[in-house]
Specification:
134 residues, mainly alpha, two-stranded antiparallel ribbon, 66% helix
Length: 134
C-alpha cells in the first residue's frame, strides 16, 4: 500500500506541475523527447490550455482527496471542481498570454453562474445521498 501511495503522490505532483507550468510559458512533455519546452499558447489554442490545466488540477484535487480519505458525496462534485479550476485558470492564462475580450468575460460569467448552480446541487445531493440507505 505504501508503494501505491507514493506512486499516487508522485502522479499528483506531476499533474499539478503540468497544470501550472503553461501559465508561466513552459510545457512538460512526457512523450517523444522528455523535458520542459516553451508552451506555444496563442489565440488558436488558449482555451485548450485552459481546459487542460483545469482537467489536470481536477484530477490532482481528487487524488489529494483520495489520499486524505475524503470521498465526494455527490455525482456533481467532479463538474463543480472542474468549473472551479476553470475559473482560476482562465484569468491566469488571459493575464499571462493574451488580452481580455468581451467573449472571455462572457465565458467567465457563464462559468461562474455554472459554479453557483453546481455548488447548490452538490449541497442538495450530498444531504440526500444516504436517505434511502438500508
Amino acid at each position: 500500500m505504501r508503494v501505491f501511495r507514493a506512486a499516487l503522490i508522485m502522479l499528483t505532483l506531476l499533474m499539478l506541475s503540468m497544470a501550472v507550468l503553461p501559465v508561466f510559458g513552459l510545457d512538460l512533455v512526457l512523450f517523444g523527447r522528455f523535458g520542459l519546452e516553451a508552451a506555444n499558447v496563442d489565440d488558436s489554442n488558449i482555451h485548450l490550455f485552459m481546459v487542460r490545466s483545469a482537467a489536470f488540477a481536477t484530477l490532482a484535487t481528487f487524488a489529494i482527496n483520495f489520499l486524505r480519505r475524503r470521498r465526494p458525496l455527490s455525482s456533481v462534485a467532479p463538474l463543480l471542481f472542474f468549473c472551479s479550476w476553470t475559473l482560476i485558470f482562465q484569468p491566469a492564462y488571459l493575464v499571462a498570454h493574451h488580452e481580455i475580450h468581451l467573449q472571455h468575460i462572457i465565458f467567465y460569467l457563464f462559468t461562474l453562474f455554472l459554479v453557483l448552480i453546481l455548488s447548490r446541487e452538490n449541497k442538495a445531493e450530498a444531504k440526500k445521498i444516504f436517505v434511502n440507505e438500508w
